[in-house]
Amino acid sequence: MGLNMAMIKTAEEIKNIRAAAKIVSEILSYGISILEPGITTAELDSQIENEIKRRGVTGPCKGYNGFPCVSCLSVNDQVTHGIPDGSILKNGDIIDIDLVINMDGYYGDTSKTVGIGDISLEAKKLIKITEDCLTRGINEVKPGNTLGDIGCAIQTHAERNGYSVVRDYSGHFIGLSMHENPMVLNYGKKKKGVELEPGMVFCIEPMINIGRKEVLTKGWDARTIDGELSSRCEHMVLVTNKGHEVLTYHK
Ligand code: MF3
Ligand code: CO
Ligand code: CO
User: How far is the CA of 126 from the centre of ligand 3 (A)?
Assistant: First the structure.
């Protein structure tokens, strides 16, 4: 796959990537709107797949290294890449809906963790802090700052709240393929790593655990080693001359 695409996108490419980001955001909103206790993750995925088709785009996760579905649906202690199946969502669960679309060769990728019905205060706090980690990471995005500044902001906020940052998975550049180099780590040191320049487009996607940072991965299945909750949210961000533009949105 095209991992080594140019890090700086052209104006034309940015226009198309922005459009793909808008569509994937709308499809994520749709997915969130049909969540209810009793639905299985396979049903949720198939509704999302219908919506993807209805809009004339494709879901490139399906078939990606053998991944079987258009959406990654990660429930409770699942960290990422949850495969939709017959599991029934119930009151109190949290689920990360992570979607990628391909529109005419341009990619959009976004995710959000939401609760089903009434969730615990602990789960609410985890989701909120994870979103705040993403916001703090995004706020570091401007020319002259580095990928390390982003990772440091995320890690500092998570750990200050007693949570841990997953190391096994990370964000990534994106645009002409789903995953482009370099990776965008959710931890790091200020002033380290690639320096940001206008025209770069990447996904920031912190995965934050209540307990230990270690993940048990078996094939696609990736769960926290201690069975505690994990939350994730993801935005696509463009570096602009003055700062940044967030290309995806969560409603
Ligand atoms: N959407 C995920 C990400 O944020 C990747 C999906 S992997 C796939 O990077 F196997 F589902 F395609
Ligand atoms: Co994603
Ligand atoms: Co991503």
Answer: 20
